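Thread: Newbie trying to understand structure tokens

Hi all, I'm a second-year student working on a class project, and my supervisor (Dr. K.) asked me to get a predicted structure for one chain before our next meeting. I've only ever worked with sequences, so writing a 3D structure as a token string is new to me. If someone could post the tokens and maybe explain what I'm looking at, I'd be very grateful. Here's the chain:
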Amino acid sequence: MELSWTSLSLIATLSCTILCTNALLNSSPQPQSKPTNFVVFIMDDVGMGDLGCFGNGTIKTPNIDGLAKEGAKLTHHLALPLCTPSRAALMTGRLPIRYGMGSRHIMRVFTFLSAKAGLPSSETTIAEVLKDTGYSTALVGKWHLGSMCEAENECSHPNGQGFDYFFGLPLTNLRDCGSNSNVFIAWDPHIYRDIVLTFLAVLWAAYTARKHRYIGLCGFVIFVGTGAILCGSFFAFIKSIRMMNCVLMENQRVVEQPLQYANLTERIHRRAVNFLEGHHDKPFLLVMSFLQAHTALFSSEKFLGRSKHGLYGDTLEEMDWSVGEILRTLRRLGVDENTFIYLTSDNGGHVEEFSEDGVREGGWNGVFKGGKASTWEGGIRVPTIVKYPGVVPPGLEISEPTKLEDLLPTIAGIAGAQLPNDRVYDGKDLMPLLTRGKTSGPHHEFMYHYCGSYLHAARYTPKDSDKVFKIHYSSVIHVPGPHGTMGCFGTYACRCTGYSVDHHDPPLVYDITRDPAEQNPLDPNDPEIREVIHTMKEAVAEHQGGITKQQDQFDVLRLLPRPWKQPCCGTFPFCSCKDSSTVETPVLPPKVVTQPEWVPPTEDISQS
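---
Reply by user tm_fold:
Sure, no problem. This is what the structure looks like when written as tokens:
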């Protein structure tokens, strides 16, 4: 029986429809046709052992844990030891040593709002990359990469680095701030006592010199007067720190001075949601840069006392609440399936952070040695999650070494943006690793871990090997602290050079895959380890040979405050204003809250 042309056409059409449908159903997930949105969560001083999805069984982080189930966990993701250089690396995809942000002295973060120091305008940030392709960009929370302008188009504040909108702290949540502040400059809690003792010493020296007739009455008056002026000026400077540095800004306008911590997380969170609601109809980048869990610790009243870990746990659980609400906002606005989400911490937990009563106020780094400010694994390995619906398989776990600098090239690749080709990038696009779980070779064969401007350690992933070697050329010396904790308790924060640092020749070598706690250095006389040391020596020489001298952002003169440049709401020096969105809810200071002894997590993490 012959079929009519109509029947044949109908059969052909149906066959084509079935085949095309099967092809679509069986094809691998592809990126959305619409431009991808980006949400970047940056936690502050949160360690590898602080989140439930990374092994903590006592601090409740259900929203972040859910994010990990829907995306990929990066268990070997690496940062820099401190916030300012680490955030610079995340923003630029480049090691800070390449653009003058590697300090050679004790101060490795920006400490004064009116200082010249800042992220150079010549660097290209993730916001600038996306802004040039039509994205709306916002950063809410902590910046800590400078806030001043050297010239009209050379500014380090967020609006000068590609962010259309900024609401938050241009510095960080210092202990100097808040209604129950105590001065924390130079990390010396006894600074008032020292000022008084200094003046008394000057007075005694002047009296002794006058008594033995080394100076006359006029000399005595000049001696004492000079001492009084110097000590009085320093005292006045210390008392003005809250006004100078404790500032909340909206774009370049001061909206609260001095800063108060009352419901600050809620206020910052509200601005993030407002940005999403106002810009979800076009591509956007939102960087939610939390203040948790840097000290001074604070929490809104409804979260106080909820955690077994006292105020530290309360702040983390409030942060988790904010993450969950932002994720729900994305779903409510219908953009969650087309949004790339990245959550990380700027460095490891601060193990030296204890209150005067011996209550732990810093993070937990699990099995990893050390913490914030050091290049031991606890200082630079950070909990990280990536979610990209339809592209990154849910439940994926990546144990290969990756780092903060990978974010910029990853975002640029997804957005189809062109990066400047006149510089070296230390990061690499994560998508080949995230979509397949592995690559043909190591994602990064070599990594370099700086403490300020000093190369303390490096990492080597040989090709066709399941090993990752970490080589320490220098390392900070740990001493016992409260409750048997080991850390840099002699200096509060680990330093990069001097008496508190050991130098190793031959270097210490660890197989970090099998010894993530860095407890058992390998024998440097073993032929394999000798070869590792030699390979790394050549790699380090090549790497450092490619670094050119730049303007030193940590030059002492650039770090000093400039009162004539001080942001102020009101008439300087009588700067005072209050954020109109502040909810009048009292927040108890840490010493008033009854906190239990630190309870270690019920599970230790051992991902390498």
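A couple of things are worth pointing out once you decode it. The radius of gyration is 27 Å. The chain has a mean pLDDT of 86. Feel free to ask follow-ups in this thread.
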